Amino acid sequence: MKIIIVGGGISGLSTYLHLRKHLPDPSSHSIKIYESHPPRSSDTLPLNSKLNLDTLSNSTALVGGGLGISPNGMRVLRDLNVDLHDAVAAQGFPAEKFVFKGANGWTLGVQRTGDGSVRTEGEPEEVCIASSRHGIWECLRKAVGEGVVVYRRVVGLERVENGGREEVGVRTKGLVDDSDGAGVEEVEEADLVIGADGVRSIVRTSLFGNEEKFKPTYTGLSGVGGFLTQSIPSSITKEKAMIFTFGRNGFFGYSSAAPVTTQSLMWWSTFETSSLPDTKNIDTATIKAELVKRHQHWRDPNVQEIVKNAQIQSIYPTWVLGELPHWGKEGIVLIGDAAHAMDPTTGQGASQGLEDSQTLALLLAETLKREHISQSQPERMKRAVDLANELFYEIRRPRVAEIVERGKMMSNRKANVGVVAEYFMYFFLWLLNKVPLIAKLILGDVNRKLYTWSAKNEIQKALEKRDRTSASSGNYAE
Ligand SMILES: Cc1cc2nc3c(=O)[nH]c(=O)nc-3n(C[C@H](O)[C@H](O)[C@H](O)COP(=O)(O)OP(=O)(O)OC[C@H]3O[C@@H](n4cnc5c(N)ncnc54)[C@H](O)[C@@H]3O)c2cc1C
């Protein structure tokens, strides 16, 4: 079977690794990744003062900076490969707690990040790993190895007939700075194309066209962030925590991005603005001045120190995607941000991409096994791919939708508010942390839901349901 993955971000790389691990008869499949952006050497470089954001990758530059991989995401990595899991954990900072503060200096709550309380005895606990995005991406990229990622931009998909068999043609263009293939177009056929090409997915456009309702929308919140080389504040090291501060005019977060001895402090500031940055011309001096002004009255001395020394290294207007009616058909499937870009407040985007990749690979392995396929049975292969595709949406959509809904509640806490609303927000956050029962009533048992979800269990349930339905309608597979 020939598979092309579009996009070599966290979701695309992880999908490649899961497919290689789970597909039956692995050497009989050809799997390739097309990526439109050659990697930057590091995420922690300052942005040039005059920069064209259009030339940067969503994954590795524009929304570069830092992120936290939640316990559910870390568990997917552990299932995939313990060495890879350990490498991701080792390059990052294991954040055992989240500390929530108000801009006025109050501590509103402390939450444990670990999934120990919902695990059976003897299972290792996962905690949130805070890291530069580049650090996580680099671990996955190393695990994928050489010769898999091809640096060409995918510019469109088309249906092609190949010896009486319908395939998906992937049209690619050589990159501008590649002297061999600059601008040259090629078409390559595949049995399955996986769109892991992020929030502005070309694969999604080829499935749904240019209708506005299938395009991402700007949330009204933008952010800036970066890294500082300095000793890590004791509020982080003492509690082994990431610090999140909410204020009337925005939000500020900081954490260690690596083992504490590395002295890599990451920070980000989110604020409400109706004007998107001019992507052709980013003026970092003005952005820095606005950053200083925005946080000038915030009480945490660490925030003041960081803002004073900060260099702007990443800029991210936040985009989200509405719910799609399907995530693909006839040999095309969307995963990760291409299918369901969600508000960063959820802290789940990358972890959901990881869960997608595991679920899709396990499903495809299962449906291929059920069809007892050999290479010369294209009809059966197509049937297996179609079933995997359908079940993938059936299993993953409700999971993602629930997380998106919860995220909406929290993202409101980052928008500009008046002084009364500011103190109401502090009280609300304090109450949620102080009286877990209230949080449970409003949000449900979030950690249990997030951390006990299992792709294997969900696949088994979905297949059993399909079998029951087929049996009762007398519609057995051949
Ligand atoms: C500010 C911010 C903070 C966040 N914080 C967190 C967090 O703490 N925890 C968390 O879990 N998530 C977080 N997220 C979300 C997370 O970053 C994304 O969900 C995740 O990176 C999605 O990965 P992806 O591989 O699906 O997409 P992307 O990372 O966007 O990767 C897509 C890849 O496809 C490539 N590509 C695009 N178009 C083409 C094309 N035409 N041809 C070939 N290649 C193409 C891109 O260059 C890119 O490499 C955050 C997001 C933002 C914006």
TrEMBL record:
SUPFAM superfamilies: FAD/NAD(P)-binding domain (SSF51905). InterPro entries: FAD-bd, FAD-dep_Monooxygenase_BioMet, FAD/NAD-bd_sf. Gene3D superfamilies: FAD/NAD(P)-binding domain. It holds the Pfam family FAD_binding_3. Residues 66-374 form the FAD-binding domain. GO terms for molecular function: FAD binding; monooxygenase activity. Keywords: FAD, Flavoprotein, Monooxygenase, Oxidoreductase. Belongs to the paxM FAD-dependent monooxygenase family. PANTHER family: MONOOXYGENASE, PUTATIVE (AFU_ORTHOLOGUE AFUA_6G14510)-RELATED. This is FAD-binding domain-containing protein.
